[in-house]
Design a protein that fits this description.
With 80 residues, the chain is mainly beta. It has one domain. Helices cover 11% and strands 45% of the residues. The chain is built from one helix and four strands. The radius of gyration is 15 Å and the shape is elongated.
Length: 80
């Protein structure tokens, strides 16, 4: 099964990160994404009481070609 994870970076300079990895059916898998410098800069400028939301989407193609998608939102707190 082929699985890919796409993370959409919040803010005016929205971008995306991609990590592709082959995983065994029915087995949990982890993905490591590095925070891009633009997003890290936005977080440094934000007050610690505020946050940005990062949306993660995982897409997997099953053997018969059907695509399965899952989504998770994560809040990243400001660092100033």
């Amino acid at each position: 099964m082929r699985s890919s994870l796409v993370a959409a970076a919040p803010g005016p300079s929205s971008g995306s990160l991609q990590a592709k990895k082959t995983v065994a059916p029915g087995k949990p898998s982890t993905f490591t994404l590095t925070i891009p410098s633009e997003l890290a800069s936005q977080l440094r400028q934000l007050d610690s009481s505020k946050s940005l939301t990062l949306t993660l989407r995982a897409h997997a193609t099953k053997v018969k070609g059907k695509v399965s998608t899952d989504q998770l939102s994560v809040r990243l707190k400001g660092r100033s």
